[in-house]
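Action item from last week, closing it out:
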Amino acid sequence: MAGDIDWRRRFPIALIFALFFAVLLALHTPLLHLPYFWDEAGYYVPAARDLLLTGTLIPFSTLSNAHPPLVMAYLALAWKILGYAPVVTRAAMLEIAAFSLLGVFRLAQRVANTEVAVASTICTALYPVFFAQSSLAHLDLAVAGLTFWGLLAYVENRRWATAIWFSLAVLAKETAILAPLALFAWELIAPFFAPPLVIPSEAGDLGSLPGPRKPGFPVAFASRNDSTKNWSKIGPLLIPLLPLGLWYAYHYARTGFIFGNPEFFRYNVQATMQPLRVVLALGLRMWQVLGYLNLYPLTLAALFAMWLPPLCDDGEDRKRISLDVQFSFLAVIAAYVIAMAVVGGAVLARYMLPVVPLVILVFVSTLRRRVRMWRGVVAIVALGFVAALFVNPPYGFSIEDNLAYRNYIVLHQHAEEFVEARYPMARVLTAWPASDELSRPYLGYVTRPMRVFRIEDFRVEHLMAAADLRSNFDVALVFSTKYEPPHPWFERWRTWRRWKTEFFGYHRDVPPAAAAQILGGRLVYSDLRAGQWVGVIEMEQVEEARMGHSLVAERK
């Protein structure tokens, strides 16, 4: 441990943070000027902009989802100081990403050692979901960073610092309450497992933190009478409930709703309470924690490493992360996996960002302890993460989880510039989020608002219904709302397709040429990038009007 202390003295935290931020900024340079994407454009940026312009914590330009306002307030402050621009937003979010990586580094350094900390931090930074989310104006990366710092304070037995970090986390997003509640539950039940878990140091792939164990929490494997009811020790873990409750009370007083607008609550809570859906979502959450986007090589390597004996340094077995710390991590991971399987209409991988780095940390520590060439294994894992940033997987996934989101933005930028230039006064049929992109210039796609006729999506039945109302629009902007792999793994299984449709909102978008036939128009623009597409369809009345203007001009 002395070597780690000397290392920290030579390289202060501020210097490490500056290094992380500089590296992230350099790696994200091609992405800094991109317009806002999907949920950024739909909620978080409008909510932060409302706060900037009026000081209101409840957004009015979009329906409130009851998310706590910490991240939106942070963005509003950044815009107030540096000006409103996507590059400011992206740089501000990269600061949060650097702060989160610093939390991973310090946590890994505390529970393991500097070697594990460096390897875990690099893997976390390159993990596609973390990398893609690093510059996007979402909440989950901030929650992850604050959670890591809360866990660091927890394992160091700084109970009031733990309460403060987790309180800040719940003010970033309500789901952050899962971590302190999971730790509280573990503190209550851990003493009952203490007697059978007093085991010699050679058992398992775990170990103890250097130095004598501090009293207080974490209390795992203390005696049964030690602190089962020691509320002064574990009570601070419940403190984050107070700011969260105050926020919900304020939200209810201002809107009449506790958990956001009724449609948001129905989609994310009421519609998800079906046993089969919970089971399927539980499987997806487990996959996101252990295998998603080339995470599975690390998982398999760590499992195989468990069959190997621990390596020795100077005649002693290499240290392992202590049992109480690992079980505390497991409690947090399990809480997220289970809770996020029960609630949340969209099973998005970014919701698991507070726990995936914990999995990476434990697995990297296992490799270092048992595999002689562990650095090579970690390097292969890191290269796999880099590959997954650019190469889409052979199954459906959310395009915000790797650099596919950039393809989406570029496709929409070009198509909407074409629409604005050629049809400046047109009424445009499209779906969300393009409807917001066209009607809100501050999102970065158009220079002035355009009139929009919005439909739900581009499945056949919605396009056919829109065709009966063709007098309400002049141009249609159609695009792929979901990524469709060219050779999907499970598409031949009808039951899986039915489950996806019934429980997870799956549908097939009609491609541009077929959409033009259904709507009775002419495809005048189309583009395709790595499985995503966009098209612009000119309706007959617009074409006839343009021809009429041409004839009049010729006669003159």
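Closing note: Confidence is low (pLDDT under 50) at residues 196-229, 547-556.
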